[in-house]
Specification:
Blueprint (H helix, E strand, L loop, with lengths): L5 H13 L3 H14 L9 H13 L3 H14 L5 H12 L5 H10 L5 H13 L3 H13 L8 H14 L2 H13 L6 H13 L3 H9 L6 H13 L3 H13 L6 H14 L5 H8 L1
Helix pairs in contact: 1-2, 1-3, 2-3, 3-4, 3-5, 4-5, 5-6, 5-7, 6-7, 7-8, 7-9, 8-9, 9-10, 9-11, 10-11, 11-12, 11-13, 12-13, 13-14, 13-15, 14-15
Length: about 280
Amino acid sequence: MGTRDVAAWTTVIAAYMQTGRAKEAIETFVRMLREESSAAASPNEYTYAAFIAACADIAWVCIGEQLHAQDARKGFAGARSVANSLVTLYTRDAGCLSAADAVFRESLVKDVVSWSAIISGYAQEGLDEDAFTLFREMRHHSSCPRPNEFTLASLLSVCATAAALDAGCQLHALAVAAGLEHHAMIRSALIAMYGKSGSMLDADMVFSHRVKDDVVSWTAMIVGHAEHGHSKKALELFKEMCRVRLKPDHVTLIAVLNACCHAGEVDSEEVVVVMLL
């Protein structure tokens, strides 16, 4: 291109982000600042939002903070896209939750992404009550759409940690009402929640109604059975998982090894399979 405007630069930065290439996104932003001097190519709120999202992906909080200061000077910090990226950035760092909350509260327009990001931040820090308080506030907020899979999955992870079965069942009902129960993220979160709460029958029920196979759901089932001493069931699931040609990840393998140990089958064929994968 002979000339590049802000839309062209921002599109390339966003494309790098969407394909998981955060470093290239940051390098492109730096090139934009160095190479362009015209007002038409000056970064706008969407450019800054894409760049801050890239910083969040690779945990460059310090650089994101510098961009936050620039956004504030240029009047972009209150824009929804920028605020959402900043909340996500700060929730990725354990010591920056208060900064995330401040950005969230100062944002003039909050959407489901905004609410999901801050709820996820509190959930990741183990602040269960705060996460659910925010969720209740979200549901009573007049301008906020219905919770999405990210909102519900974050809260289900809190229920799994706290073994709060009643709250988890209510979230399950909300997921069904929203038509999200077959989403891979929700399904795996439900299986993990029921497994941690000791309700493997419910976990089995969710798993049996899956529409599509995925590694996370299978792993959640294997982990649940292994943790509750159902070693043979965990090993059977692992073999079936291999038969449907899903490649186990490191979490799956650790769960299978634990199941083998508890079953007293340290020399069994399952261990050999694990080591060969």
